[in-house]
Write a structure and sequence with these properties.
mainly alpha, 2 domains, two-stranded antiparallel sheet, globular, binds zinc ion
Length: 391
């Protein structure tokens, strides 16, 4: 008898926990809004009790050549698809994700403040780009994406955690959830149930998908299937509990504000100067930088699946978008990325600048990064469309 037709008590231990967790949810409240969340203790027990597994099937699937070739030949190319319905996991019963809606709206409402003479600073503008590189290209691009999602290189655990914590400071969800959603995206790109295809509509792909619960990507079963390897790490599990990753983000914002105030006090020697510096650091170093990095990252899901050129024939409508490639320091070479998801090198032609990859190359020279996965040229040559310049 297999567990599928056995009674509950005969199921493997970890599946019992899964059912247990699905049935017991806590209400978690912030500022009067209640967020249902899986019981953190039950969830922790569940993940601690996972049966050891050497590999993650979903990850192997999206990285296998067989998958890419099969997808190419199955007649499911997305280029001709004018529209795709929203994922089936989103319907009238899906709750609004206030933990996103409120910060996104409040942060955007603060934009005019940043341009008042008291708050405006060209150093602040420069920090948009510096912070974008540090927190988002290194934290999200190298950490969440190329390392945790695609395992495109190896590094010591402490350095992996450092990259992931920089990613948390970009306010783009916890590592486990980001990885889960992105692996589902690779498996079903531009076909249902891709969580954020612009074939639903451009707004949906850019930000709309973040605002409503999608049951394809929010159940413990989904975490088990797509992010088991990430959830086995106690740090990522802790960030996942309740809204711990959100508190880490706000703590880093307070820390940056205090550092700005301290520097302001040292420079001006006055309390008023310290207050002004703290305000500028809060507005430009945290709020404006977060808004900027949200949009450049979201642009990969929207613009880089709509506008740009294609080096490779792939089953989805991914594009190399030079504007978003420059803004994200490499992530915008998105057609290259879909053609060979495993490699940490997203720029494939000499002029496709990929600062995130070149940072990893420098780190490889220091010995901190190892096993940097280079493009699989033989597999890629089969998909090559030709040089867009006609060479
Ligand atoms: Zn994509
Ligand atoms: Zn990816």
């Amino acid at each position: 008898m297999t567990w599928k037709n056995a009674g509950l008590s005969e199921m493997p231990h970890h599946l019992q926990f899964l059912i247990h967790c699905e049935n017991f949810r806590l209400e978690f409240s912030i500022g009067g809004f209640a967020f249902p969340h899986p019981n953190p203790v039950a969830a922790a027990l569940f993940f601690m009790n996972l049966q050891p597994r050497t590999s993650n099937e979903a990850v192997n699937d999206i990285h296998s050549e067989a998958y890419a070739d099969e997808a190419l030949n199955d007649g499911q190319e997305a280029n001709g698809l004018p529209k795709v319905p929203r994922p089936v996991g989103v319907d009238g019963n899906s709750r609004i994700l206030w933990e996103y809606v409120i910060p996104v709206i409040v942060f955007h409402l603060m934009i005019p403040l940043a341009f008042l003479p008291y708050f405006f600073s060209w150093w602040g503008v420069a920090f948009l780009f510096i912070g974008n590189y540090l927190f988002t290209s290194i934290g999200i691009g190298a950490g969440y994406h190329r390392l945790l999602t695609h395992r495109g290189f190896k590094c010591p655990k402490w350095f992996e955690h450092l990259l992931a914590m920089l990613g948390v400071c970009s306010f783009q969800d916890s590592p486990a959830r980001w990885v889960l959603v992105h692996r589902v995206h690779h498996q079903h790109s531009d076909h249902q149930p891709d969580p954020h295809t612009p074939k639903v509509n451009g707004f949906w792909a850019h930000v709309g998908w973040l605002f409503v619960e999608n049951r394809d990507t929010s159940t413990l079963a989904a975490y088990d299937k797509y992010a088991r390897d990430v959830m086995r790490d106690p740090l990522y599990l802790w960030l996942q509990r309740g809204l711990n990753w959100v508190w880490v983000y706000f703590a880093h914002g307070i820390l940056l504000t205090l550092v700005g105030g301290l520097i302001g006090w040292l420079v001006t020697g006055t309390g008023a100067g310290a207050l002004q510096w703290a305000s500028v650091w809060l507005l430009w170093g945290v709020v404006m930088r977060t808004i900027f990095t949200w949009h450049v990252t979201w642009g990969i899901n929207s613009a880089a699946h709509m506008w740009g050129y294609r080096n490779y024939e792939t089953r989805e409508d991914s594009r190399n978008n030079w504007l978003f490639a420059l803004l994200t320091n490499g992530e915008g070479w998105h057609n290259n990325h879909h053609a060979d998801p495993r490699t940490a090198q997203h720029g494939h032609r000499w002029w496709e600048l990929d600062l995130t990859y070149w940072t990893l190359v420098v780190l490889e020279k220091t010995g901190l990064v190892t096993d940097l996965v280079r493009p699989n040229r033989s597999a890629l040559s089969r998909k090559e469309i030709g040089d867009p310049a006609g060479n």
